[in-house]
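Many introductory courses stop at the sequence. We go one step further.
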Amino acid sequence: MPARDAEPFPRAVLDVLGAAADRPVFEHGTRVVTGAELLDLVARVATALRRKGLGPGDGVALLLGVTVEAFATILAAHVVGARVVGVRPGLTDTQVEHLLGLDIKLVVRDTADLVTTGLVTVPAAALHCDGHPGDVARLIHTSGSTGAPKACAQTYASMANAWNTRPAAWPPAVRELAARLGRYLVFGSLSSQVMFEYAVLTLTAGGTVVVADDPATAITDLRATARVITVPGLAKLVAAQRHSPTGLDTLEALLVSGSPLTAERHREALDVLGPVLFHGYGQTETGMISMATPSDPPGTVGKPPVDVEIRDGELYVRTPSQASSYWGAPEESAEVFVDGWVRTRDLGRFDEDGNLVLTGRARDVVIVNANLFHIGPIEHVLAGHPDVAEAYVVAAPDDDTGEAVHAFVVPRADRVPRLAELRELVTARLGAACAPVRVTAITEPPVAPSGKPDKRRLAKLIGTA
């Protein structure tokens, strides 16, 4: 057993909970959980996992909601050194089956069962973290638009290097944000990398994690100081505040995530909501790359505290907590994880003050509700419809989801398929987020000088380029 100060993740989180003692650290409705109580819950679940034979290197899949028990189970699985796979909502049955087939020893669907079978008294000091630094600590999945979601493998060493558990290493933007995380909302899924890691940052900063059953009204109802929000969600909040202002007096930080924020929308949000915007840029493969604080220039993502190189306009980065590979995908790993760098496939530049400005994407993707989906597999499914000879997809702006799929199809014998049929086909194969919201029939696609279909000219037809 390693010495306590040499133990891997989540030792730093356990120490935070131990120091919190009687301070509230988690809140769900009328239930308030102290640091000591959450630490005890983690200990009991870890004991239950060990009784079930789970240990270092074993795979555990978590199909859980957003509860105190779910958060404790994630930490407990890391305590025993497992390889944790969180299964997020919205995946197809086929995709879930794929995730559960990734060398999984235990599937946890109900934390109550673990807690009741593990009801033993375990002093907090007896909690020991068994993860090996080089072992994979968790698999964080990409969107799954290829049918099988890609799993970013993050080691225990990488998780221990993350900023959220190391106050002494906090970059200025993270330090400013941490001071505003008094009551941070969690909702949706704790398998979300962003949701979970800001929760850990909140605990480390001395705040309380608050479960929001209805995030739309939670800022006011739960007197939250911080929450994650997508760009479309931010637009709706700004519009609502312009039309009928409501009390947001407790709000100190909106963590804008998932897609770039234009300078115009950035300025408008600051004007309407005040200095509360923290615009983060990162990827599943890298964790946080950069973050703009409310005082940084609108349209930028601030000054990156990590290594960033621009190669032919494309961003390559090195971060403390980056993944090491895609699990079980050596060819795809070789394309993205290059000599210690991560190829982001995003385009960008630095302004004269060193702020990072994102200018586009080098990959053919659509970002729906902050989730990235590759366009190629969507086109392949659409082309499989009996009335479709060819299919081309572009990302179209959408007020509800940020971006959405717009399909251009070349019909067979003038038989234009109905939108509902195409949506049903894609939903069954890839999930509802990949389904087209609009379809346009064309006789043939425009062609670029390379001889390939010209997606930029297709995008201009719907005003997106």
